[in-house]
Every structure is written in C-alpha cells, then in structure tokens.
Amino acid sequence: MSGISKQSDKKTDIGKNKMSxxxxxxxxxxxxxxxxxxxxxxxxxxxxxxFILMYCCVNINSILLAFKRYDNPDFVWNGxxxxxxxFQNITTVPYAMRIKNSVILYLSGxxxxxxxxxxxxxxxxxxxPGYKFFQVVFFLPTIISSIVFVVLAKNYIDRVLPxxxxxxxxxxxxxxxxxxxxxxxxxxxxxxxxxxxxxGSLSGVNESVVEYAKIDGMNFFQELIFVAFPxxxxxLSTYLVVGIAGFFTNYGQLYSFYSWGxxxxxxxxxxxxxxxxxxxxxxxxYCSASAAGVVFTLIALPLTIGMRKLTYRLQPKEx
Amino acid sequence: xxxxxxxxxxNNDPASILSFLILLAxxxxxxxxxxxxxxxxxxxxxxxxxxxxxxxxxxxxxPVKWLWSNYKDAFQFIxxxxxxxxxxxxxxMLNSLIYAIGCTFxxxxxxxxxxxxxxxxxxxxxxxxxxxxxxxxxxxxxxxxASELQMSRLLxxxxxxxxxxxxxxxxxxxxxxxFYEAFKGQSNTYAEAARIDGAGDFTVFFRxxxxxxxPVFVGVAILVFxxxxxxxSVSLIYLPSHPVVTLGLFYMQxxxxxxxxVPILIAGAYIVCVPTIVLFVLFRDKxxxxxxxxxxxx
Lengths: 319, 298
Description:
The structure holds 2 protein chains of 2 kinds. By secondary structure, chain A is mainly α. Chain A contains 12 helices and 2 strands. Chain A is 78% helix and 3% strand. In chain A, helix 4 (131-143) crosses helix 7 and helix 11 packs antiparallel against helix 12. The longest helix of chain A is centred in the first third of the chain and has 64 residues, at 2-65. Chain A is globular. The model of chain A is unreliable at 1-19 (pLDDT under 50). Chain B is an all-alpha fold. Helices cover 65% and strands 3% of the residues of chain B. Chain B is built from 14 helices and 2 strands; from the N terminus they run αααββααααααααααα. Chain B has helices spanning 14-40, 45-49, 69-77, 89-120, 124-138, 145-154, 161-167, 174-184, 189-196, 201-230, 233-238, 245-253, 262-282, 284-287; strands spanning 79-82, 85-88. The model of chain B is unreliable at 290-298 (pLDDT under 50). Chains A and B meet through helix 1, helix 3, helix 4, helix 5 and helix 7 of A and helix 1, helix 4, helix 5, helix 6 and helix 10 of B.
C-alpha cells in the first residue's frame, strides 16, 4: 500500500514539480514586465504629463477661449461673436497694413534670406579662402543675444549711418523708413543659423561626386544646382514647411526695436497679437487673440500639408 | 614626407571671387558694428551723444578718456522695476544663470528620456509618442499664447522658476529626433552583456546608455544653454518678478533716463555676451558640428 501511495506520491510530486516550474516561470515573467513598466514610467511620467498639460490642455483651452469673452473675473460664453469681430476687423486699414507687412516679412525670408543662406553655405563648403573665419563670423549672431545686436544697431543706425553715409538720422523713427530699416537689419543678421544647418547637409557630399563634377566640366552654378542643392534640399524643405505658420506669428526684430510701441504702419500680425496678449489687454484680449489663432491655424494647416507634399514632389534626385 | 591635401575647388572663377567679396563686405559690416560698440562703451554720455564740449565730434572717434568704469557702472545703473524695488544687473545675471541651467537640464533630459524609451523598448505607447513628435513638428498651431499664459497661472507655474522649467520640459522638438537616432545607433551588445550579468533596466540606462550618449547630450545642452541665456521673451512673459539680464537690456534700451547713459548700456551688453562667447570658444566644434535637420518624408 505504501508503495502505491509512494508511487502516487511520486506522481503527485511530479505533478507538483510541473506546476511549480510553470508558476515560477510566469511569476518571473510578470516581475520582469512589472520592473520594465516601472522603469518606463520613470522615464515617461514627467514628459508625458508636461505634454498633456502644456500642449493638449493648452490647445483645447485655446479653442474654448475663442468662443468666450472676459467678464471680470470670469470667462463667459460668447458664441461666434469673437469670430464675427475678427472678420470685421480684417477689413479695416490698420489690419490690412499688418497683413501687408506680414507678407513682406515672409517673402523677404523666402526670397532673400533663404537663397542667400544657401548661396553662402555653398560658397563656404567650397572652402573659399578664410572659410573657417567666415563660418565663425556668420555664426556669431546665433550665439550672441539678439538684444545685444539691437542695442548696438539702434545706436549705430542713429549715430553712424547719418555721419558716414549722410542718411537721415531718424531711419528707425520715420514712418516711411522704419519698417524697411528693421527688415534689412533682420535679413543681414538672421541667416546665420540656416547656414550652419545647410553646411551640415553639405558635409554629406561624397568627394568622388565633386571630382566627377570637375571632370565633367561643371562650373560654379552647375555644381550648386546638381551637386550641392540636392543635399541641402532636405533642410530647405523643413524650413519651408515649418515657415508657413511663421507668417502668422513672426514679428522679426520689431518687438526688440520698439517694445510695445511700434507704430501701426510697422506692425505685423504676429507683433499685434503678441503685444495684445502680453502687454496691453491681458485677460480682455485673450479671447479675441485665441479666435484669431483658431482661424490662422485653420488656414496654416492645409497650407503646411500642401507645402510638405509639394516639397516632396519636387525633391531633386541625387544621382 | 608631408602629403599636401589637394583642394577640390580652385575658387578662382569670377563667381567665387564675387562671393568672397560679398562675404568680406558683410564681415566688415558686422565687425564695424562690434568694434564701434566696444569703443562707444568706453565713452562718457556727452562724448557719445556729441553734446556740450563734444559738439561736432565724430561718432567714429576713439574715446577721449577710456572709461572702463562704465563696465562697473553697468551693475549699478541697469535695473528693471519689479513691484516696489529695482532688480539690478548682478541679480539679473544670477536669474539668467538659474534660468539657463534649469532650462538646459529640463529641455535636454526630457526628450532624451522619451527618445530612449521609444528607441530601446518595443511597446505601443512608444510608437504613439514617436508619431506625436512627428505630428507636432509638422502641424502648425498658431495663437495659443493667451491660453498658455492662462494655463500657467491656473497650474501655479507662472512667475516661478520651477514652473517655467516644467513648461520647458517638453519632448516634442527636434532634440528628440537627435537623441532617438543616437540611441537607435547604439549597439545592444553592451546592454545585453550587462543584463546577462544581472543588470536591471535602471543600471543599463544609467551606466551604459547615458555614458555612450554624452557627446550628443553635451552638444544639445550647449545649444539649449546658449538659447536660454540669450532669450528675454520667456522672462518677460512668464517670470516678471525674476528678470533676466537680456530682459534688463531690452527694458533699458527703450528707457534712457537721465542717470542711464547709452555707453553704460552698451558696456552691459558686452558683459552679457561673455558666457556664450566663452562657451563658443571652448566648444566650437561641438556647436558648429554636423547639424542637419533633414527632410520631412511621407
């Protein structure tokens, strides 16, 4: 009897062993998974919380604000009135001027700054005499604060230009020259960061391709178009896609030069709404600025997607 | 025998010569601004403005008396009013340092942590987070400044350093992509060997992954520090009680009161440049290294 029970005990023992192996394995697996999730939670908890609060909640709140008005101390429902007011405002002369200035600022970046940055990057990549020195010089406006250059430039324009070039001594204050002066300043100072990015792209050009171009007899411009530009295109397309939203938000150096007191003739859309929210209206301006933001986002979104598709379609082949 | 490096381009064609002349002209313009500014910072107010006994003095003239004391006076005279007192230049420099260091830490570590999770672990949320970054980078959101300001007040993030650091701890930026590619490019051999030896996830992360990524981390951190040090708009909007030194310059350049002189303001501007120029000199290769943001593909 004891032998059978022993046998049975053995079976039970074997059964028990099988079960304990299985349970040990799954327990270990669960513990491993649990430790992994603890670690991932450690990595992700603050960044994801920040994203939920400062991106998702902010943008949802922005949309809600667009349908409200400030009635001290609360925000009350206002329906579509903010949007009606927005579409009425854009027909006024001051607003039309802001749109015009925004167009000029955007096009100056697109048609002057960007081609200049591409050309200068290409020239520096060709290792012109003193190219390392020029690289450092063009990078200076990126590492030195813009306000430092504005402090210098403001006084330089007021004091030195009239003395040396007989320029008017109120270039910045005059309503016919102020915006253009700030625009030209912005173009001259602003393309350093782009140059660094384009040079980074050009570092990927194979030397054998350049030698082949030389053998083929390519001149300065042919090499720029067929060798350098395809490599820079990726960076350029990113700037073009991201720059669409900049049309509505960009105010160049206007705020640095004029603080909140830029004349209407100088203002851009970005400057106007920045000053409205930060300086003047505070809570009373939040709702109208948010409504404008919703409209601008609805305009910018399809344009950005369209620009992305266009740049992808026009991508030059690197042959 | 020294092998002479052959140049790929001769640069003796008319287009190259014209390009060189344009670069030279631009450089001379920028340097004339910087050098003129330096000599102006050593002048007295009447001499700089050309008034009184300095009437008809050229603005390009060297200082009659080299007032190095202007650099010391910058600490006294450059000030921003906050409530009932003035925050002076020295305190603003400290605010700038705190803000720049805190921002650098938060803006660099946050995308690094998320990039590591997405690159090294295969889980659904990781893929979602990666797509979120790409989507946020492409989709333009305009005009949410008012909402962000309101939310910062509501959440108690407004007008305190920790709050602003939290606001800067986002991961939906280009630095995430840089860290992601760096972690993806890391070989898993070291991590696997460590796990065989019994190392857990924390050990692998802190003792293997991070040391391997330090060059990338330092490069990104330097760029973020420089940007944070130079920025005045964040202090203007979110830290009004803790003005940074660039905000001080911004405030004073529109407010030349009787005690305040432009040469002292320019001297203050040159003091502000020192930390970023020192960083640039020390880490020039890292800062001007091969940065490429590439294209946004379908």
